[in-house]
Amino acid sequence: MTNSVAIFLNKLVSSTFAAIAVVALLSITLQSCATTASMLDPEKPTITLKKIKPLNFSFTEQELELTLNVENPNAFSLPLNTLSFAAKLAGEHIADGTSRERVNVPANGSALLNVVVTTSLSKLMGKIQSAADEGTNLDYNVKGNLKLDNWPKTIPFDSSGKIDNPLL
Question: Is the pTM of the predicted complex or chain greater than 0.85?
Answer without folding.
Answer: no
